[in-house]
Amino acid sequence: MYQIKRAIHQYSNVELLDVIKTEKDKIKIDKAKKELESRNLNDEHRKNLETEYVMYKELEEKRKVEPLTNEEWFSFFFLSFFTPKPQWQDNDSFSESELQRFKRYGYYKKLKQARTTMFLGAIFWTVIFMLVIIISKMLR
């Protein structure tokens, strides 16, 4: 999963546990274990951490298959080409920031659907533009 690069001490307890259980890099696992131990969690907190971790993983799996909402579909189809994007900022448009958010937080189905919807929106607006040109020439 795509993650923002940050120091291990900035991870939540659940994220540290996820690193310990799923990471392949042994150095990162060791750092996560040391960081988690340095937080001096008591038995009750450790038990709660396991419960929170299960919920974290369930939500992670749910995000992978969550589809676009109607509002998101509408905005990607019709508005993705009309949102302002200043020249001096690389990713300041609505569509790009939403795509980055989907990728960052594991909304893989939404990401795929958004890209498809933007492509279909581009085709739609191209056809509309061509029809306007054809109709305007016919009316002359």
Please give a quick description of this structure:
With 140 residues, this protein is mostly helical. Helices cover 70% and strands 0% of the residues. The protein has 6 helices and no strands.
Explain what you see.
This protein is mainly alpha-helical and 140 residues long. It folds into two domains: 8-65, no CATH class; 70-138, no CATH class. It is built from six helices and no strands. The longest helix has 31 residues, at 108-138.
Please name the defining characteristics of this protein:
mainly alpha; 140 residues; single chain; 70% helix; 6 helices; elongated
What about the largest sheet? Answer: none
Structural class computed from helices and strand pairing? mainly alpha
Q: What general form does the structure show?
A: elongated
Domains counted in the coordinates: how many?
A: 2
Total count of strands? 0
Spatial extent as radius of gyration = 22 Å
Global mean pLDDT = 86
What secondary-structure arrangement, pairings included, does this model have?
Layout lengths: L12 H10 L3 H13 L4 H23 L4 H10 L14 H11 L3 H31 L2
